[in-house]
Amino acid sequence: MTSTETSYEAADITVLEGLEAVRKRPGMYIGSTGPTGLHHLVWEVVDNAVDEAMAGHCTTVDVTLHEDGACEVSDDGRGIPVELHHQYEDLTAAEVVLTVLHAGGKFGGDGYKVSGGLHGVGISVVNALSSRVEVEIDRNGRRHYMDFVDGGRLETRLTEIGDAPDGRTGTTVRFWPDGSILDETRFRFQTLAERFQMMAFLNRGLRICLNDGRSDERHEKVEFCYEGGIRDFVVHVNASKESLFNEVGYLEGIEDDQEVEIAFQWNTGFNSDGLHSFANGINTLEGGMHEEGFRSALTAVMNRYAKKRGMLRDQDDNLQGEDIREGLTAIISVRLVEPQFEGQTKSKLGNVETRSLVQRTTNDRLADWLEEHPSEAKRIVQKSINAQRARVAAQDARRSARRKSALDGAGMPDKLKDCASKDPRESELFIVEGDSAGGSATQARDPHTMAILPIRGKILNVERARSDRMLKNTEVQTLIQAIGAGFGEDFDLERIRYHKVILLCDADVDGSHIRTLLLTFFFRQMRALVESGHVYIAQPPLYSTIVGREKVYLKDDHVKNAFMEDNPSHKKEFQRLKGLGEMDFDELRETTMDPVRRSLLQVSVEMLAIADEVFSTLMGEDVESRKRFIQTNAHDVRFLDI
Ligand code: 0RA
Questions:
Q1: In angstroms, what is the span from residue 134 Cα to ligand 1's centroid?
Q2: CATH superfamily of 10-224
Q3: Distance between Cα 49 and ligand 1 center (Å)
Q4: Which of 138, 463, 506, 587 is catalytic?
Q5: What is the 3 state secondary structure string of 590-634?
Q6: So what's the pLDDT on residue 631?
Q7: What is the dihedral of CA 33, 36, 37, 41, to 10 degrees?
Q8: pLDDT-above-90 percentage for the chain
Q9: Which terminus, N or C, of the chain has the lesser number of Cβ atoms within 10 Å?
């Protein structure tokens, strides 16, 4: 045994311990053991090749899915270094890259300026999670080969197996995902193709081919290569849309250790989420600093331009970001040394310095672009102004629709015991004071035509309340909702749900107060309802007395006096009925609700003309005159009854 072999074995043990950790907790390295994790292995290998491309050393990546379950990724980069590694004296650099966690491409001094951020766990992870890995490296004019089995155990050490064809350089990695660790080992063509296309867009000029050699799959070979890079990406996204102009705009900004590229075009559509962003080739679905920088600068630049050109006057409202972004398709791609991925799905870029680069680039370069493209610029501004108008109009419409649905929408308040009939002409709404009276009324009613709405306590003092506060009052909201025709200026008599709105209140002082409040409300907010005679006051009897075995109800003093004249021998007591609660539901039906026997008082316009003064006096701010009014009229309950 040579000394090299001995120390290799020593290195081998520590190396395997590292990979063992990956096999124990694969989720920590590739997210999951499901399809997402499986495809993650491919991204890992392809990212390495793309890194080579970004460093300017690779033009083509060929991916092949083999019949035996292998995925082969072949690139024409520099090839993984084959020399002995400076830290692991007995291992070649290639062996280290495949077996040491995070060795990736970053070792050896000037590795990569910018490297695949999210996936950068290293190709050794792929090795750890594969039952077999074969690597071919063309470098220094020679072809090298090594292979691993069972999650990273080196089976064949790196050896030269011949000349590199035509002196080419490059790396081929073939791996068989380990079915004892992964739930899924079957690659999905579509998943791979979509991502490769995206990668090709983001890496201008890089050719990525996907070949399916599996006999049970029928996929044509696909090849993605875009000389225009993200400009072509924009054309692709806009392909099914009508573009506002042919030109695709392009902006670029470079700083010491970060760079940004932006491509954009507007289409005639109304979509305002056509902004897509990437950081180091990772789709930043949650946005982040690069998007922020672009959005704010875009809004500022467009407003400045529109004002300068007189398309927007000084007194006009500024265009909002969403107005400008309507119909915009834009790709932002940034590359930076230490991307910070944040957010729920780690797809939000957190680097503040990137915001300022993107903002500055957009501010300067977009302003230039607009100057150089006056006809395009004019169209963009015009479209934004149209979007602004549409937005304001939609806002107004929404606002009133929301108000309508909050106050008279389809959903009726729970408190309302609606009638079965949907014909307003035969429908009646009884507004009943108190829950218990509401219960009796519900039992007493004809459910086909009579709806019951119990109103609790004293509703808002409408006269003094400002309308916004008034509308917050739940009793008032319920009322508006039940009647279903809006309120105030929007009140629409055509939409009332009941042709009779009947106030059913106790015959006492509290009852008249509530009745007055309700009438005030109708008078102020639904005047047309009163004017056209839809509002009534139910008149529960004031007295009852027993005649023989029957209870007789007497509506008021007038009727009582007449009764006493007609029945001089009647010696029974007269009961003064104070509240609706004193009647059971049969009594309530017979005396107050039954259309044949009840007596309703229709509220008339003339009453209201007088009432207007009354209401103002009773409800107004003037406490002194209110007191006086109540004192002088307290004896005359009928006056308050109207
Ligand atoms: C380490 C250093 C260098 C390249 C690579 C790794 C490399 C890794 C992979 C994985 C798949 N394809 C790859 N191609 C290259 C830099 C080599 C140099 O400086 O010459």
A1: 16
A2: Histidine kinase-like ATPase, C-terminal domain (3.30.565.10)
A3: 8
A4: 506
A5: HHHHCCCCCCEEECCHHHHHHHHHHHHHHHCCCHHHHHHHHHHHC
A6: 43
A7: 150
A8: 57
A9: N
* Kind of pairing between the strands at 170-177 and 130-139: antiparallel
pLDDT score recorded for residue 374 = 97
Tell me which residue has its CA closest to atom 1 in ligand 1.
105
Query: Could you report the per-residue pLDDT of 545-591, keeping only the tens digit for each?
Result: 998 888 888 887 888 888 998 888 888 888 887 678 778 888 899 88
Catalytic residue among 247, 342, 446, 508: 508
Cβ neighbourhood burial of 473 (10 Å; 0-12, 13-18, 19+): middle
Can you give the pTM of this predicted structure? 0.64
DSSP class of 241: S
Please tell me which residue in 51, 232, 433, 475 is annotated as part of the active site.
433
Q: Which of 150, 255, 286, 510 is catalytic?
A: 510
Residues 229 and 210: their CA atoms lie apart, in Å, by 19
Closest to 148 in 3D by CA, of 104, 101, 98, 182: 98
Is it the case that residue 618 has pLDDT exceeding 60? no
Query: 435 catalytic, yes or no?
Result: no
Active-site residue flag, 372: no
Q: 185 CA to middle of ligand 1, Å?
A: 26
Q: Does domain 230-390 have CATH number 3.30.230.10?
A: yes
List residues bridging with 264 in a β-sheet. 249, 330
Which sequence spans correspond to the domains of the chain?
Answer: 10-224, 230-390, 412-540+579-605, 541-576
Give the Å distance between the CA of 112 and the centre of ligand 1. Answer: 9
pLDDT tens-digit readout, 364-387? 999 999 999 999 999 999 999 999
The most confident of 47-51, 301-305, 527-531, by mean pLDDT: 301-305
Q: Does the active-site annotation cover 433?
A: yes
For residue 206, the CA-to-ligand 1 centroid distance in Å is 17
Q: Is 428 in the pocket of ligand 1 (CB under 6 A)?
A: no
Q: Which residues pair with 229 in a beta bridge?
A: none
Q: Is the CB of 105 under 6 A from ligand 1?
A: yes
Q: Which of 99, 90, 162, 104 is nearest to 130 (CA)?
A: 99
CATH fold of 412-540+579-605 reads Rossmann fold (3.40.50)
Residue 264 has pLDDT above 80, yes or no: yes
Any ligand 1 atom below 6 A from CB of 123: yes
53 in contact with ligand 1, CB cutoff 6 A: no
- Let me know: does 90 contact 106? Beta carbons within 8 Å: no
pLDDT tens sequence across 392-439: 876 776 566 555 555 544 578 888 999 999 999 999 999 998 878 889
